[in-house]
């Protein structure tokens, strides 16, 4: 018992550290011993809803496989972990299944674990929680996980008391996400054609990324019941504008009925994780540093227009750390629906050349709890591949919120790493 306590005690030099010493580009890029850094970031391949490769795999089994593959790849002693946070939304008893998965994968009993649910931003919140624990000096090495199996655990129909439901905003915050998509499209005049145009960009980019092997750089193969899973089965090559425009609306009774199966995020299954520590510890223990956590922001917006969350979250996080939108090299903005995505992109005034260069949730799918971590994995891999520096991730959040995070690429370029 005493040995375990001594092992997890945080050295005095790691206490009261801050991720960055000031605001602005130079401060964000500066390297300090107390920086919260990412030493590993990978995801599983993703599976289609009801028909895909994870359709019969519960989240605990998915996490167990991901944990095992991670330790085999990194050679990290799981006993060194001081905390784990899992972002997930809809599985029953997520805390129990997460703890069980950790133990079954060989993580010792004295490594604690928690779960967090802020709907579509849950994975980002898991990273945030571990980063904050490291910043505070409570721990110096932790793991953030995002996982969801929407085949086995679809979105439940939320219910609230009649006395609460009589308030319009309270009523709106529990409505189906498709309804909020139609409300955004109708109120902000996002046409069906525009939605399909943005969807086509996503489908085209994802298909190109898959055929060129781009996603293989961010996917860690996992073994499930004797089968190795390593390729997304969610991407649909060959999507055309004619195909998209020919699809029937999914929500014909709401708004302008412009949301279709082709211009909305996929429902899918998958898991992703990041390992975080201090720069001081990473260098001391010879861990490869691939990224740096800078900061995050969470905002609230009108529940009826849930999808506009990134419009408020991105400027907030940029202001917090003293950056401008032009400082960012790559944006990973979740494509919950083409309606809200198109409106966010155009209101933010960011070039699509910088946003979701390998497609987004419309094409690759959107396992709710996974997405916040998946975007970081994808974004850091893209920065490494293109030898660029700054990533901003963002997403709208069910019930009327938005979230965003800033990360720095510190990985060696792939060509250099292979030499």
TrEMBL record:
Pathway(s) this gene product operates in, as recorded in its UniProt entry: Lipid metabolism; fatty acid metabolism
What range(s) does the Thiolase N-terminal domain occupy? 36-279
Provide an example Pfam family for this protein.
Thiolase_C
Q: Which GO terms describe its biological process?
A: fatty acid beta-oxidation; phenylacetate catabolic process
Q: Which UniProt keywords apply?
A: Acyltransferase, Transferase
Q: Which family does it belong to?
A: Belongs to the thiolase-like superfamily. Thiolase family.
Question: Where in the sequence is the active site?
Answer: 120, 366, 396
Q: Which reaction does it catalyse?
A: an acyl-CoA + acetyl-CoA = a 3-oxoacyl-CoA + CoA
Task: Fetch the SUPFAM superfamilies from UniProt.
Answer: Thiolase-like
Recorded GO MF terms: acetyl-CoA C-acyltransferase activity
Return the CDD domains for the record: thiolase (cd00751)
- The segment(s) forming the Thiolase C-terminal domain are 289-407
Please tell me one Gene Ontology term that the record gives under cellular component. peroxisome
Name of this protein:
3-ketoacyl-CoA thiolase
């Amino acid at each position: 018992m005493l040995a375990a306590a001594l092992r997890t005690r945080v050295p005095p030099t790691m206490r009261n550290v801050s991720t960055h010493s000031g605001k602005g580009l130079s401060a964000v890029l500066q390297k300090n011993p107390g920086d919260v850094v990412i030493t590993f970031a990978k995801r599983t391949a993703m599976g289609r809803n009801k028909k895909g490769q994870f359709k019969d795999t519960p989240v605990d089994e998915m996490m167990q496989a991901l944990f095992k593959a991670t330790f085999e790849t990194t050679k990290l002693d799981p006993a060194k972990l001081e905390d784990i946070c899992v972002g997930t939304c809809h599985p029953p008893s997520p805390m129990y299944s997460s703890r069980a998965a950790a133990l079954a994968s060989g993580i010792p009993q004295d490594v604690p674990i928690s779960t967090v649910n802020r709907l579509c931003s849950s994975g980002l919140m898991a990273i945030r929680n571990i980063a904050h624990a490291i910043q505070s000096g409570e721990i110096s090495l932790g793991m953030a996980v995002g996982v969801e199996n929407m085949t086995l655990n679809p979105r439940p129909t939320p219910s609230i008391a009649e006395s609460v439901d009589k308030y319009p905003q309270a009523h709106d915050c529990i409505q189906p996400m498709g309804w909020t998509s139609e409300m955004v499209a109708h109120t902000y005049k996002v046409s069906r054609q525009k939605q399909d145009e943005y969807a086509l960009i996503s489908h085209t980019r994802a298909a190109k990324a898959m055929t060129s092997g781009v996603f293989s750089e961010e996917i860690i193969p996992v073994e499930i019941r004797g089968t190795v899973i390593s390729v997304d089965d969610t991407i649909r090559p060959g999507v055309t504008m004619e195909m998209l425009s020919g699809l029937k609306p999914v929500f014909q009774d709401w708004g302008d009925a412009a949301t279709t199966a082709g211009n909305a995020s996929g429902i899918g299954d998958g898991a992703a994780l990041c390992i975080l520590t201090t720069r001081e510890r990473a260098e001391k223990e010879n861990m490869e540093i691939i990224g740096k956590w800078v900061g995050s922001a969470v905002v609230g917006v009108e529940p009826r227009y849930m999808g506009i969350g990134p419009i408020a979250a991105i400027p907030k996080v940029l202001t917090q750390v003293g950056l401008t939108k032009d400082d960012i090299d790559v944006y990973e903005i979740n494509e919950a629906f083409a309606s809200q995505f198109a409106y966010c992109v155009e209101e933010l005034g960011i070039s699509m050349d910088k946003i979701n260069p390998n497609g987004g949730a419309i094409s690759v799918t959107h396992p709710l709890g996974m997405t916040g971590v998946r975007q970081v994995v994808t974004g850091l891999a893209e920065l490494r591949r293109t030898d660029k520096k700054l990533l901003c991730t963002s997403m709208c959040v069910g019930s009327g919120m938005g979230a965003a995070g800033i990360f720095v690429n510190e990985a060696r370029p792939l060509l250099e790493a292979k030499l």
